TrEMBL record:
PROSITE patterns: MT_A70, N6_MTASE. The chain crosses the membrane at residues 12-34. Residues 82-103 are annotated as: Disordered. GO terms for cellular component: nucleus. Pfam families: MT-A70. This is Methyltransferase-like protein 4. GO terms for molecular function: methyltransferase activity; nucleic acid binding. Belongs to the MT-A70-like family.
Length: 388
């Protein structure tokens, strides 16, 4: 068994440099090597496994619940649909969709994923045409066994994992289970980076909330986000990183309203590409207003920051197999190292899980810290074996 102190910042990152159609891959575990790469592949599942490996009891035929989240074998379709590929079935669709025209972003993303495929990054095992039933059932089980927590604060200042009251706490982590509008509780703290995953208004979540209240989050309008005192808690060279939908309204509001309100200037936009275990996009590319197989990560820096500090480059790409649990984003902590000081103070708002050396703030900050997530769990219709 590996010593717990070696697991303070684990993540699998495959850094990809695309030059003249060729890709050069570096496999890095627990450390990020900065260069001129165009993008990364992150294994979110491996990140979790490495972080919590000292409490896992994995066997060949059983896996912990969290691992089922990443059994994404096929592109996503609605529960009442089947995966249809025949021309005959496609012609039966009643709704006429706008014509899709490939743009520079989608071309770059397709080339990026194609290069990853050529390097055997993805699974080559026969895929299950099961509409991701295992991952979807795991997500349902997760929501059935979690609920909103009461307001409280805490930390694990030690270099080891800590288990208490049915929760698992990563080393050197701090949390505030509280509404982000109460972030004045942070008092005079200043952070080198503030990462946000805001609950943007979303038609899909509105529909989901009507059907299953526990699976939809409480959305927030843009005017409320503008009231967050981001500027007060940033250092003079502070970096802001915001997960953003592909809604042009949200993108424009973030750049022209929220950033100026927070005393932030726009720096760059990255793309998180969601793929299956075999490297397929989780959905087709669509016209501008349609659902895309990617989300955006938009960066800003304090307006009066030091111009010598390195900023995130424009249009970098991150690929990963997504979790079946809504808004369970992959960790960015290692990737962002080159844009931060040597020992940065890091804050995440609207957080849903804890990270080593980070402060996590939000009503669901401990959502993915339940101990049962890291215990062996059988999921009906699951044909996967553990990746020991």
């Amino acid at each position: 068994m590996r010593d717990k102190q070696t697991t303070t910042s684990p993540v699998l990152i495959i850094a990809t440099s695309l030059v003249s159609g060729l890709s050069h891959l570096s496999l890095i575990i627990g450390k990020y090597l900065a260069n001129d790469d165009d993008g990364f592949f992150i294994s979110h599942q491996m990140f979790i496994s490495k972080l919590y490996d000292t409490i896992l009891n994995k066997t060949e035929n059983t896996v912990p619940l969290y691992e089922h989240f990443f059994h994404i074998n096929n592109p996503f379709v609605r529960d009442n649909q089947q995966v249809e590929t025949s021309t005959e079935n496609n012609l039966k669709r009643k709704r006429k969709r706008p014509k899709y025209e490939e743009d520079d972003t989608s071309k770059k993303i397709k080339t990026f994923i194609s290069n990853l495929k050529s390097q055997d990054i993805f699974s080559t095992s026969p895929r299950f045409l099961d509409n991701n039933i295992c991952a979807r059932h795991a997500s349902i089980k997760f929501y059935e066994n979690t609920s909103e927590l009461k307001t409280f604060f805490g930390q694990n200042p030690n270099p080891n994992l800590h288990i208490a009251n049915g929760y698992v706490f990563p080393p050197k982590s701090q949390f505030y289970c509280d509404n982000v509008f109460n972030m004045k509780n942070l008092k005079d703290e200043k952070y080198d980076i503030i990462l946000l995953d805001p609950p943007w208004t979303n038609k899909y979540i509105k529909r989901k909330k009507k059907i299953k209240r526990d699976e939809g989050y409480t959305m927030m309008v843009d005017q409320d986000l503008a009231q967050l005192p981001i500027n007060e808690f940033l250092t003079s060279n502070g970096l802001v990183c915001v997960w953003c939908t592909n809604s042009q309204n949200h993108i424009d509001t973030l750049k022209s309203v929220l950033f100026p309100k927070w005393n932030i200037k726009y720096v760059a936009c990255w793309y998180w590409i969601k793929v299956t275990k075999c490297g397929e996009f989780i959905c087709n590319f669509a016209p501008q207003t349609g659902k895309q197989p990617y989300e955006r990560i938009i960066f800003g820096r304090k307006i009066d920051s030091d111009t010598k500090i390195k900023n995130p480059e424009e249009n970098k790409l991150i690929a990963s197999v997504p979790s079946s649990v809504h808004s369970h984003k992959p960790p960015l902590s290692e990737i962002l190292v080159p844009y931060l000081p040597p020992t940065p103070k890091c804050l995440e708002l609207f957080a849903r899980y804890l990270l080593p050396n980070w402060t996590s703030y939000g009503l669901e900050a401990l959502k993915f810290q339940h101990q049962f997530l890291y215990e062996n769990s059988d999921i009906e219709h699951c044909n996967h074996k553990s990746n020991i």
